[in-house]
Amino acid sequence: MEFLNIILNTIKSINIFSILDIVSVSFIFYQVYMLLRKTRAEQLLKGILLVVLLIPISSLLQLQTLNWILNKTITIGVLSLVIIFQPEIRKALEHIGRSAFTEKHIFQDDETISVIISEITKAVENLSASKTGALIVIEQKTGLSDIIETGTKIDGNTSAALLENIFVENTPLHDGAVVIRSNRIAACGCFLPLSSDRNISKQLGTRHRAAVGISEVSDALTIIVSEETGVISLAVNGKLTRYYSNEKLKAILIKIIQYRRDKKITIGEKVKSWVKIKIKA
């Protein structure tokens, strides 16, 4: 009865600000769920919600022992959540942290975009034809200095010839990823974080998993050339699309970069959309 009285009193005290509060909290929970969807944390989240629902039910049915156990579980679980959800919390904060006040535009004009992307796609086309494995990361608004530090710094002009030369098999720098910052090749032989997404095909190797991994924790555009098949793939926002031609790859890269350069995105819009760009393969 006490529980029912609390509910009735709450309903009576609802006003416009209460509705706004409920909508805001619901929106936040929805976005958190979308962030955790299709991750290992999703099943854990469902278990936590079940425990939370069982607490008032056990209290209503006067199941005192069960209610005590569930309450203690929640108390201890608060600290556990921070540890368990550490990768997801970090990912969410990185998304929110890309505010309009800290973003920098990598490419300022269409001509620069066209020239740089043309050089990259030309190299990718030649690497694909020779079935030479490659991993090229184009830095966007999320800084990749920590990734650059893991490789060998080059700071050279972005050219097809240099990119092709870097990925020549059995050369000292061909392993790892090339990171392109602005219009220059910042470093090569860089190590990328591997994705833990179980939906990635088992037929794809470490190179593809690394490409998805860096796109999950940043807004970088990552191009992959398969060493076995020569297939060209692209990883953006944790999504991998494959079988690109040179023309199609160039068009989608230019489209994404121009979109991100021209669109003024506020922090609120970032929280709402998580800066997801849909790519049609």
TrEMBL record:
<dbReference type="GO" id="GO:0006171">
    <property type="term" value="P:cAMP biosynthetic process"/>
</dbReference>
<dbReference type="InterPro" id="IPR003390">
    <property type="entry name" value="DNA_integrity_scan_DisA_N"/>
</dbReference>
<keyword id="KW-1003">Cell membrane</keyword>
<protein>
    <recommendedName>
        <fullName>Diadenylate cyclase</fullName>
        <ecNumber>2.7.7.85</ecNumber>
    </recommendedName>
</protein>
<keyword id="KW-0548">Nucleotidyltransferase</keyword>
<dbReference type="InterPro" id="IPR050338">
    <property type="entry name" value="DisA"/>
</dbReference>
<comment type="function">
    <text>Catalyzes the condensation of 2 ATP molecules into cyclic di-AMP (c-di-AMP), a second messenger used to regulate differing processes in different bacteria.</text>
</comment>
<keyword id="KW-0067">ATP-binding</keyword>
<dbReference type="GO" id="GO:0106408">
    <property type="term" value="F:diadenylate cyclase activity"/>
</dbReference>
<keyword id="KW-1133">Transmembrane helix</keyword>
<keyword id="KW-0547">Nucleotide-binding</keyword>
<feature type="domain" description="DAC">
    <location>
        <begin position="86"/>
        <end position="246"/>
    </location>
</feature>
<dbReference type="GO" id="GO:0004016">
    <property type="term" value="F:adenylate cyclase activity"/>
</dbReference>
<keyword id="KW-0812">Transmembrane</keyword>
<dbReference type="Pfam" id="PF02457">
    <property type="entry name" value="DAC"/>
</dbReference>
<dbReference type="InterPro" id="IPR045585">
    <property type="entry name" value="CdaA_N"/>
</dbReference>
<dbReference type="GO" id="GO:0005524">
    <property type="term" value="F:ATP binding"/>
</dbReference>
<keyword id="KW-0808">Transferase</keyword>
<dbReference type="Pfam" id="PF19293">
    <property type="entry name" value="CdaA_N"/>
</dbReference>
<comment type="similarity">
    <text>Belongs to the adenylate cyclase family. DacA/CdaA subfamily.</text>
</comment>
<comment type="subunit">
    <text>Probably a homodimer.</text>
</comment>
<dbReference type="InterPro" id="IPR036888">
    <property type="entry name" value="DNA_integrity_DisA_N_sf"/>
</dbReference>
<keyword id="KW-0472">Membrane</keyword>
<dbReference type="InterPro" id="IPR014046">
    <property type="entry name" value="C-di-AMP_synthase"/>
</dbReference>
<dbReference type="InterPro" id="IPR034701">
    <property type="entry name" value="CdaA"/>
</dbReference>
<feature type="transmembrane region" description="Helical">
    <location>
        <begin position="6"/>
        <end position="32"/>
    </location>
</feature>
<feature type="transmembrane region" description="Helical">
    <location>
        <begin position="44"/>
        <end position="62"/>
    </location>
</feature>
